[in-house]
Design brief:
Layout lengths: L2 H5 L5 E2 L1 H8 L3 H14 L9 E3 L2 E5 H9 L3
Antiparallel strand pairs: 1-3, 2-3
Helix pairs in contact: 2-3
């Protein structure tokens, strides 16, 4: 999935699979890293990740800012 495709998605939050495809990692690897981070109360990525029980969501606007190098 490209950054342009993500920009054009008609939703406000992204799935781990969409983000993983854009940053070039395996979706399961991305999920496992998020779960490991949750256990250690950290975030290995420079964009916010929302974990609600077993669901992982990434705010689209924040992810796009990160990918564009904006603060």
């Amino acid at each position: 999935m490209t950054l342009l495709e993500i920009e054009n998605l008609p939703k406000e939050v992204l799935s781990p699979a969409e983000v993983a495809a854009c940053i070039g990692v395996d979706p399961q690897q991305f999920r496992m890293q998020v779960w490991e981070d949750q256990k250690k109360r950290r975030n290995s990525y420079d964009f916010p990740i929302i974990v609600l029980r077993r669901r992982i969501k990434i705010p689209k606007a924040a992810f796009l800012k990160y990918m564009r190098g904006e603060k």
